[in-house]
């Protein structure tokens, strides 16, 4: 039995779906009504990381855990790892980020994830870290601007990033959860090619069948928008990350998806076509 957390997010939801298609899976959710993966093999339990009793209930009889955390202040990785160790869990696969393995990355979020990985290591539970590059699904934040005036606004539009389809990240995680020999390994996960926001806009235009224009977002406006949505340390981390991308730090492509799943990573055009309705149109074939 495998326990999936984060099953209402882009990666966790797909991990749960893939596992449920092959056998029993348990999902831990703070709000079970939001879980969309259902079926006779799916056991959805209510609980949260800060409630040790609910963690213990969710981990009863569990062999492996897929762990997703996102709090900038709570020690959730340490909480789950400690409970998993006490429950006799044999494998913990944690969703992390590729920046943790890059020495020049020192923003708040990267430092936080490094600490989270260390907490998992120190728990004594055999671990695997899945470290994706930027998700292609982050471009869904452009949907409002595309719908209203056909404009994509973003920082550093010409800077490349080897962004990855969350479905491919999930496939790597499932391979680690269900396969052998992945303990003690950390897998960077990227898409098949580095692509800029300007190029993504052009491909979205083709997929949606309508003209789109890219507009460079000035740093002060980007900071203002981020501060309206996130705490200052998180907003500043995103801005630092964008500067690293502009310097080329996120352009490297790694072959992990093909190595662990036997098929190539999906390109951005495929992701865009599959999610065209989220941008207000029915996509063309990739």
UniProtKB/TrEMBL annotation:
Source species, domain of life: Bacteria
Pfam families reported in the protein's UniProt record: NAD_binding_10
Domain NAD(P)-binding: residue ranges: 6-178
InterPro entries reported for this sequence: Ergot_Alk_Oxidoreductase, NAD(P)-bd_dom, NAD(P)-bd_dom_sf
PANTHER family linked to this entry: PRESTALK A DIFFERENTIATION PROTEIN A, PTHR43162
Name of the protein in question: NAD(P)H-binding protein
């Amino acid at each position: 039995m495998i326990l999936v957390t984060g099953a209402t997010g882009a990666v966790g939801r797909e991990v749960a779906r893939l596992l449920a298609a092959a056998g029993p899976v348990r999902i831990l959710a703070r709000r079970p009504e939001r879980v969309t993966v259902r079926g006779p093999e799916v056991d959805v339990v209510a609980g949260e990381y800060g409630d040790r009793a609910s963690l213990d209930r969710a981990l009863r009889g569990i062999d492996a855990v897929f762990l997703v955390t996102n709090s900038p202040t709570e020690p959730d990785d340490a909480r789950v790892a400690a409970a998993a160790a006490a429950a006799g869990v044999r494998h913990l696969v944690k969703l992390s980020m590729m920046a943790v393995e890059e020495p020049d990355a020192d923003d708040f979020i990267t430092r936080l994830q490094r600490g989270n990985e260390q907490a998992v290591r120190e728990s004594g539970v055999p671990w695997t870290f899945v470290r994706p590059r930027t998700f292609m699904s982050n471009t869904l934040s452009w949907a409002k601007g595309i719908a209203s005036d056909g404009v994509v606004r973003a920082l550093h539009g010409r800077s490349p990033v080897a962004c990855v389809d969350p479905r491919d990240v999930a496939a790597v995680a499932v391979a680690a959860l269900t396969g052998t020999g992945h303990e003690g390994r950390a897998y960077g996960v990227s898409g098949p090619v580095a692509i800029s926001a300007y190029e993504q806009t052009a491909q979205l235009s083709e997929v949606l069948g309508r003209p789109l224009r890219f507009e460079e977002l000035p740093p002060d406006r980007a900071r203002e928008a981020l501060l309206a949505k996130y705490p200052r340390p998180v907003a500043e981390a995103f801005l630092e990350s964008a500067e690293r991308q502009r310097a080329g730090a996120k352009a490297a492509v790694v072959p992990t998806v093909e190595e662990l799943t036997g098929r190539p990573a999906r390109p951005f055009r495929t992701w865009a076509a599959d999610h065209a309705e989220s941008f207000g149109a029915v996509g063309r074939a990739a």
